[in-house]
Amino acid sequence: MAILVTRPDERGKQLTDLLNQAGRVALHLPLFTFESGKELESLPGKLNRLKSGSYVFLVSKSAVDFSVKTLKEIGLHWREDLQYFTVGQRTAQHFSCQSERPIHYPIEQENSEALLALPQMQQLNGKQVLILRGNSGREYFIEQAEKRGATVEIVECYRREPIIYNSDEQSSIKRSGVDTLVVTSLEILHALIEFLPENEQDWLKNCKLVTVSSRIADVAKSQGWQTVILSPKADNQSLLKTLLS
To answer: Which end of the chain is more exposed for a tag (fewer CB within 10 A), N or C?
Structure first.
């Protein structure tokens, strides 16, 4: 049986290749592409206006890629007097390589709750927090940071654009013997449900679903999935280990 990887861009292709190399049949079906966000041009000015010691939170590798590209194009460097955060180790490493700046991230879990448990997040009175993200995202971190006294600003660095497939491409998933789905965000989960017609929904929700957070797992179960498996982390190596086991 086959594994359907819905993770977009190169990360999804890499996971698919790793699975195929390990002897598992895997197909890559990204449901989004990423384009420049409508607020990206405002990023340099907003970074420059931050007070020394302010926090910058990059929600994903895509946020890193689009923001790094924008600053490089105008010759602006990431400020040394700001503190940088992300929720995942891979995104943190990616940012450090691109920016040559240290970055903080939670070790045990890759989610907003773990980020908010970091020592730096306990006293936020008067702190400026700039969040670099896509055109949608979870609001929990923003709400909690504001409750703790922070002033939060958001920059939409990228936007998700749906990929349109024809009906033959849709039905080919079932014909390919897919019985396991890899879903790495709520946006992808909702797009996957909308992707298939009503008469394919029972088949879809009988597939095993491998995901990266308990929040996504809970929504999947509420939508009708019976078998939901949680990867301990969101990076491809953790997903690969989960899928092979």
So the answer is: C
Task: Give the ranges where 74-185 is alpha helix by DSSP (H).
Answer: 89-99, 112-116, 140-147, 167-175
- DSSP H helical segments within the chain, as ranges? 9-21, 43-49, 61-73, 89-99, 112-116, 140-147, 167-175, 186-195, 201-206, 214-222, 236-244
Q: Which residues contact 237 (CB under 8 A, 6 or more apart)?
A: none
- Name the residue among 90, 48, 89, 43 with its Cα closest to residue 67: 43
Other beta carbons within 10 angstroms of residue 109's beta carbon come to 16
Q: At what angle do helices 214-222 and 186-195 cross, to 10 degrees?
A: 30
Return the SS3 of 151.
strand
Query: With 80 as the cut, is the pLDDT of residue 168 above it?
Result: no
Where do we find the tokens 């070790």? 107
Confidence of residue 111 (pLDDT cuts 50, 70, 90): confident
Q: How would residue 222 be classed by pLDDT, with cut points 50, 70 and 90? A: very high
Domains of the chain are 2-31+163-244 (3.40.50.10090), 35-160 (3.40.50.10090)
H or E element at residue 50: none
Segment 74-103, tens digit of pLDDT: 999 999 999 999 988 889 999 999 998 999
Closest residue by Cα to residue 73 from 41, 100, 48: 41
What is the model's pTM? 0.79
Residues 183, 165: Cα–Cα separation, whole Å = 18
